[in-house]
Amino acid sequence: MRKAAFAAIAVLVASGCGKPADPTATASTEAPAAAPSVIPAEMPPGEWVKVTQRLPGTIPTNLSDRLDCLRRPPGGVLLIGHRGGPTRDYPENAIETFARTLKAGTRGMEVDIATSKDGVLYLMHDDTLERTTTGEGPTDSLPWSAIQALKLETYQQATDFHPPTLADTLKWAVANNALLELDKKRSTAFAPIIQAVRDAKAENNVFIITYTDQQAVEVHTTAPELVITATVTSLAQLDDLLKRGVKADHLVAWTGVAAPDPALWKALSDRGVESAFGTLGPRSTSLDGKYWADDDGSEYTDLDQQGLAILVTDLTDKVSRQLAGAIADAGACNF
Fold first, then answer.
1. pTM of the complete model
2. For the chain: N or C, fewer Cβ within 10 A?
3. Among candidate residues 156, 114, 104, the one with its CA nearest the CA of residue 138
4. Cβ of 239: how many Cβ atoms within 10 Å?
5. Are strands 179-184 and 121-123 parallel, antiparallel or unpaired?
């Protein structure tokens, strides 16, 4: 999610033991009560508004409609865990971590997709294997048979968990009504990711992250049924994307990590586009670090009240507790 600068800084800032600063060093790992689970209603995609007028309590199943629902009272917040919500004991980009994150109240996970030497799509953030696994070398230097045998590591320890394939991750998301935000890494192309989503019938369980306007147009043209995220910092930029064929109802506007912009969120909402914002990043400079410096997370409540629909954080447990009510509200939209 527009994380390249943050990731680079995090890798370069060494701790006393020569490793990057641990992003979970002060994160709570106690799982809060799970957010209410909502069972999808059986209805044709796009018809939920008509049905709810006749049958109160019916909820949308199509992802585009579910996002539209977030912009209507009572609204709510879709919380997304950066790299799946890792903790001291659970590594990033692992299905076991996603299951723990989901149980703790966060329904969305941002995940990173690399490609093995023999073309298997699997989850890995870095360009090399050293930081998060027991392996070494570039992420595309080994065949899948070797990568799947590696153990994933947290900043504290090696775990018994292994890198998962994208196919298995998508299967898990569909089975658990979870949302995945898919971040393509350097070794990977969009086309095989899109095909994997279609093969898994996971169209209503994913966003695809794009980093440039041209990528946004190309991905939307290739897969118009999928929701994409694209950086939108002004209505003029949104208008340009729309003129180039991107549809508002399949677009999430990524509005950065620097400072909240409620006026832009309101203007985008009025145009039928949901806004996403991130508090993630290196603990010393991120809003996650700033907001929790006084052990008071009221700033996250402010983001909700200011109209933010989607929030990406490194501290899923703390933030899910702070926003429990808003997350429950989003349950009415099948999140």
1. 0.85
2. N
3. 114
4. 12
5. unpaired
The answer for residues whose C-beta is within 8 angstroms of residue 66's C-beta and 6 or more apart is: 60, 204, 333, 334, 335
4's torsion region: left (phi>0), alpha (psi -120 to 50) or beta? Answer: alpha
Q: Kindly state the tokens that stand for 321.
A: 């507790």
What are the structural domains of the chain?
4-333 (3.20.20.190)
The 8-class DSSP code of residue 24 comes to T
Q: Where on the phi/psi map is residue 162: left (φ > 0), alpha (ψ -120 to 50), or beta?
A: beta
Q: What is the DSSP string of 35-70?
A: PPP-PPP---TT-HHHHHHHSTT----SHHHHHHHH
How far apart CA 233 and CA 192 sit, in angstroms, is: 29
SS3 232: coil
